[in-house]
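ok here's the first one, seq then struct tokens
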Amino acid sequence: MRTESLPDIPDIGKKLLGYLYGTACADALGRPVEHLTLEQIKDKYGEKGILELPPNSPWTDDTQLMLVLARALLRGAELEIPGLMDRIAEELVLWLDEPDMGAGATTRGAALSLKDEIHWSESGIGSKTCGSLMRAGILGFVYRNDPQKLAKVALISGKITHSHPVAEAASIAGAYSVKLALDGVEPGEMFEPLLEVTQGISKEFTHALENSYKLAYSDIGDEEGLKKLGQGWYADETFALAYFCILRSPDDYRKAVQTAVNITGDSDSVGGVAGGILGARLGIEAIPVSWVEALRDKEKLGEMVGPLLEKHYQVSEGKFRE
């Protein structure tokens, strides 16, 4: 997808496209290697690992659930939090009828509880896996101009499935980092705002974030640095790994994502977080055209752009009128 083919889309729309396609393409690139070790990835794809998307590449539950949250936001982002949470709960129940793209037990279990009419304030499971982080980035777009509501919604909408403090902090960081990216903040300058907005929630998350920043600016190689940060199955590690990759390649979407997915661990999730943040910062121009063209169901992402832009403006205008 080339920018010249989208002459009527404002710059913020091109950044939204960057976030949506940046997330989905990275998620899809990491999908085939998610459960492989780095050695197995290299054996299969060569010394540099997996580098390109083959035709008709599907995304995983990570992008699927981001779109679930996006649909809930379209129905009620402007509402007070209880009303919005009712919409999110309804969309999670509807999601149970969608094709299984590999969703984790935590998200599925919480959605089943919601289906059984357990209230959203009680449906969350005390898991520190990364399911809530994976869908949170879209909040950074919709609530970009209302950072207080952004942090509140990121926390509470994460807790509907993942109620562990590690997951709660990561959900806020995942959403807030996209807001910062849209604001044009350099990845290295995101560190202090991310520390501040997640302060006091999880010592584990704070340690992972600090370690990611420190290692990224050290002399350690990418492979060794990523190994030290973990495998990404838990939300603090997922965010730390993704942040390391964008700190190392702040202006190169392709390289950051290739680094993120070629790990022993949760390749698609780490890639998706890194790809979404850099896509939001750099815009659709930064996403390889061949990757977008190779993405299965890519039209579903394009269909969301107009409604999400309208909702973003609606929420922003409401905030400014207060």
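and now the second one, same deal
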Amino acid sequence: MEDAGHARCACRDEGARPRYLLVGGSPEPSSAELVRALAASVDRVVAVDRGAEVLIAAGVSPWAYVGDADSISGDAFEEATREAEVVRLHPVLKDATDLTLAFELAEEGGARSVIATCLTGGRLDHQLGVIGTLAAWARLRPELVEDTFRAWLLSPEGRASVTLDEAAVGATLSVLSLADPATVSEAGMRWDLDHHELALLDDLGVSNVVEAVGARVSCDGGRCLVVLDLPPKKAGS
């Protein structure tokens, strides 16, 4: 049963491939404002284990819960699994992370794209594991959104390019190769690239600046992560 104070996301067009939001349980949670905005932009919201607590705090009911319940509170688990239409409870001893299992659920559900949030901060190994998981699921066009940045996983097999609007002009943008090498082009930046091969985690693409509306980054080979810094929120905004 849906609580009156909660928003539930349902697929707006049952004939279309849905967009998914995966909400993780980072020790540095995303803001409730961001979570609500992202949830409103997709068709299905998935609580990834302790991510259910983030959704509850934001007043968003998950379409699905996925995880092993090793980090979520008992009350949050009960509420999330009561609200969710789909519950995938996995054993703690398993060969995949909860995030990977959530991507598997999204692919099973025919996802055309996936947004993820509340997955950075805390342990470095977890953060690197998140980036590796995004790279492994390039075919689902994953995007990582947090309060301070927005990142796209680019690959010819999924999302091959990203074009930026006027809000990005003046912002810092970095491109990191997740393959050895990745072939990257950048246009509309302070320093452009033309089918340049970036070695794995090469720092050449770090701290560029967006200078034009319609600036574009494309990946013609391999995989890369494009990270756009977001301006800090103004007080009262």
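notes on #2: Residues 1-147 form a domain with the Rossmann fold fold (CATH 3.40.50.10240). The CA atoms of residues 184 and 219 lie 5 Å apart.
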